Amino acid sequence: MTRAIRIGSLPYVEEGARLFEAVAHWPWSVFLDSGPASRRHGRYDIIAANPMTVLMTRGRLTEIRRERESVLSSADPLELLGRELGPLVETPDFLPLAGGCLGYFAYDLAHRLDGRHGVASPGEGLPEMAVGLYDWVVVIDHQERQAWLASQGQSHDTTHMWPELIALFSQPPPERSRRRHRLRVSPGLESNLDEAAYRRCFDRMMDHLQAGDCRQVTLSRRFDVSVSGDPWNGYKRLRMLNPAAFGAFLRLPECTVLSNSPERFLRVHEGRVEASPVGAARSRSRDALSDADLMRRLLQDTGEKAASDALIQLMQQDLSRFCRRGSVRVLERHRLESSVHVHHLINRLSGELDSAYSALDALRVCFPGASTTGTPRQQAMQIIDEVEPCGRGICSGAIGYLGGNGHMDLNVAIHTLVHTRGKLRFSAAGNLTEESAPEDSYAETSERADTLMQLLALREVGDARD
Hints:
- The chain is globular and about 60 Å long.
- It is built from twelve helices and 26 strands.
- Helix 5 crosses helix 11.
- By secondary structure, it is of the alpha+beta class.
- Strands 1, 2, 3, 9, 10, 11, 12, 13, 14, 15, 21, 24, 25 and 26 form a 14-stranded antiparallel β-sheet that branches. Strands 4, 5, 6, 7, 8, 16, 17, 18, 19, 20, 22 and 23 form a twelve-stranded antiparallel β-sheet that branches.
């Protein structure tokens, strides 16, 4: 196979979601979403479908499935991923990638990567890693207002399909009937932890905190509801309700993932590494004076700042393991960022990737994101395994891409819905320290789930204009 980059220019579109409609119902279609045009937060939209190879990890085994064969391997999942990516492919500077691996890394994959076995039962009965190796991608650059179809030249099928792909993405497809494809949500949102059960888990975690086993830890509640219809319409509505910089929609054989994440996990680009752990979050008020007071109190909350500083310290330690000595910097600390529904404290760190390491090494060291576990990470995860009644699954994991050019961009899979077997599931976690109060912590999980609950409360979700 050749490794010659092929690039075709496409008409620029402001709404990547409209272009994704062309392949939204293909198996293994992926849309990495920087937000709607009216309130965009990011730069690139990325679309991919029809992977050459897929990798799915369950427990100790990873299935590697190609068109004419399927094999199982007990090798390390990230090592297998590196083999499939192969030698680095030089890509023009204006493209973040021209192909590579796109998909998700579930929170529970951490047990496989460090050799532990979680005490909790599996998250959703889904693979802990599900990624496709894609020879072609569509990249929409909203900063430069340009769009391209790009290929790494690994697949002969891409060569044969190239004129069809150019035509397919040169004009957004006609809108599908809204009513016929609506997502219908049944009444009766359920959680795996009611307030009494949450209090019992809270008390067990507080025992660990007071014993000095960790400095902070997150406690997660899962929510689920029965649905019918098309989750793509649910995602379109969600992205309009709460635009996010690191959204994603993945239609995989066993599930569909709708991620509305505001948090970048890790980015590797041209030898630079960036991490943006999110600290405290507070739901906004509709009253302007109350909302301003919420912002002021969040910025003045010494406990939340201390917890945020602990995340920064952990990320500094993590980045120092694969970045050049002395290159790790804190670029932003406790910056207030407001979305439509939530105020966040954002931190941003960067470093220069040491030439001895790769993006996959960075992923291994930092996974899962510190903001979803606590500090120190390993001790916090052991407590989570002991206390929480089930694994977290895709929620609290990561979604995004690892390009054949060595670039990587992954979100933290919070504000993320998983559609499988007629159910929509999502999780919301609160951060616990010794000063935490159970009633406040329980309320925080409801606040973090608020945006997704609003989507579910609509009962019938048509397209974004309904």
